[in-house]
Amino acid sequence: MSIISPSRTALRHQFLRNNDYQPEQLEFLANDMSLRQYFRLPQSQRILMDAPSPENPAQFIAIAHHLKELGLRTPGILGHHIEEGFVLLEDFGDQTFSKILEDSPQREASLYKEAVRVLKYLHQNGLEKPAFIADYCLEKLLTEVQVFMDWYWPAVETQTTYEIAKQDFLGAWRTVFSNLPDLPHRLVLRDYHVDNLMWLPAANAPLQQCGLLDFQDAVWGPVVYDFISLVEDARRDVSLNLQKSLWEIFLEEVPSAQQSDYRTAAAILGAGRHVKVIGVFTRYALRQGKPKYLCHLPRLWNYLKDSLQKPSLKPVHDWFEAYLPLHNQGIPSV
């Protein structure tokens, strides 16, 4: 349910009137794990993004324009008030890849392959780093995995001193991240998975049939990050056979001598993402009172167990063995 303050509602309605839309038509659509909320104007085929401070709608707009200039499909920007945090967007409809997969599971392979082709196109064409995009630096990676210690650890562990465990945890990840293989860096959308991909069958060009959403937190980093977030999705299983096929497509232009580096980097970045998301889902359950996301934790733990078998992740594997044995982890009580 939308959490709406009276003052925010008044600002929203005034923005719509200023742009010749009727607030009475507004229908709440969704919110995400940030402060952003989305509303639909069904008669006008528009989406209203409501992104109050400290959200940064200007960054969303800049990245949307950049992706569009590269030839990818993002929602058209039809109006905005940056200071108040409102953006009017083209309405892509309701056909997310995830919804299609619920209704037509036989399309799974074709949709995932299309998603990989879009990623490859981005990597092959977006060669220059935009001035407004930050690097996916070591400190940013460490800040993300720290969410696990800030939220999951206190929910399950009361015996060990937090500060000691946290210091060792971040030290292990610092060692692992510092030894990432040197891969090409490109735009990393960071939440590239089937919930954020839209099927737009009316588009003319094949790549235009895949609409991109939720890219406002994009950074400049290793090319494998978005790929591993797609194939090791926190919310749904992707079969090993399909993963194998997708890896083959993703790596088909990569020299065979370099492919092991891609897989090693994917294991490291994937493990870091899974740890972060375990923390984020726990935070969402405890702080927002929405425990439904906790049902995904067993899947994330399984991904993490597999990743931590890799020699490149031994320092993190050893931390879990010492502090939180993987076979004992599950869903925290809420």
UniProtKB/TrEMBL annotation:
Residues 27-245 form the Aminoglycoside phosphotransferase domain. Keywords: Transferase. Coiled coil: none annotated. Transmembrane segments: none annotated. It comes from the Bacteria. GO terms for molecular function: transferase activity. The keyword Mitochondrion does not apply. It holds the Pfam family APH. This is Aminoglycoside phosphotransferase.
